[in-house]
């Protein structure tokens, strides 16, 4: 028999994997989604680039729409949920929240796989975003009922979603499976999320007491009086004023994380599709997919490392990530890096920094914040990465359009 501790660690790892899987798949498929829809919209036309390519010269080729558009569709609903959820979501049962996540995750794969136009694809991406955003705030708050190591397990699972999601998409499409059929295969993921929460994880006593209080909120005051000796976590709900006051001390954790994600996702969705090499063993599409795999490998390694290697000076991470932005932006313009393996090394380092920022931020919050404020604090801090990703998406679209208008030589 597996012990309760290991059941919970495995369960949280699976929750992290499933919660981020659809998000990762949509970003890995972003280049294909846009390319396929452009080809449908331009049947019989070769106008799929914004940069003309004169005979005998090689110029940078671009999608008409930046993959940053997919990023925004994948993150803006998440951001809205994260900005509002900590102030009302604790009034909803965890069961209702998780079932909602499962249904939206399933819808995302089905809608995108059967899409007949770019806007239908974007609706599917939005479904993935709703599932991921609601899931992240839910599962971090849920972790407050367990020992802090479940945060490491959950974070490792989100990293696993990155590497396994990007790798499975790149691998299946490279093996000849169409993007549509690949997405249909992924519908097993929402089922795993359901099984992990409702069957695998062993909930502690205080979790059921909290769920009972939420269900019968009209009797909250009497129930709380009866359970005063059980656990600090269920002594009462924070007022709106208390929640707003708690945000200020969280800024020292949230700002570095936000800055890391701005730099990170500007690289991912603003530069990856422009960093391809001509005349190598990988096509332009394949290079984009394998950049995603490489990046997610770095994220997975660092998100799984907090129990071995902790970073206390969180501000060093955005500084290093900005150095990555500078190098890779210069590569787009100057083409001074001669080999794709050097780009792979930089992309791996980018993923290591991003994963380290994520897991160390939430681990430090779980260590530093008092138990009675931990559930709200962990849920609220998830806003930081989504704000950063949204800013990156907004920046990457005009940056992509500007770069593609310059007729850069390869």
UniProtKB/TrEMBL annotation:
User: What keywords would UniProt list here?
Assistant: Lysosome, Membrane, Transmembrane, Transmembrane helix, Transport
The answer, when asked if Transmembrane is one of the entry's keywords, is: yes
List cellular component terms (GO): endomembrane system; lysosomal membrane
Task: Report the transmembrane regions from the record.
Answer: 12-30, 69-89, 96-112, 118-142, 154-177, 183-201, 250-267, 314-334, 341-363
Organism's domain of life? Answer: Eukaryota
Q: How does it sit in the membrane?
A: Multi-pass membrane protein
- Which InterPro entries does the record match to this protein? Battenin_disease_Cln3, Battenin_disease_Cln3_subgr, MFS_trans_sf
Quote the subcellular location field of this record. Answer: Endomembrane system; Lysosome membrane
What GO terms describe the biological role, i.e. biological process, of this protein?
Answer: lysosome organization; regulation of intracellular pH
Question: What is the similarity comment for this entry?
Answer: Belongs to the battenin family.
What is the protein's name according to its record?
Answer: Battenin
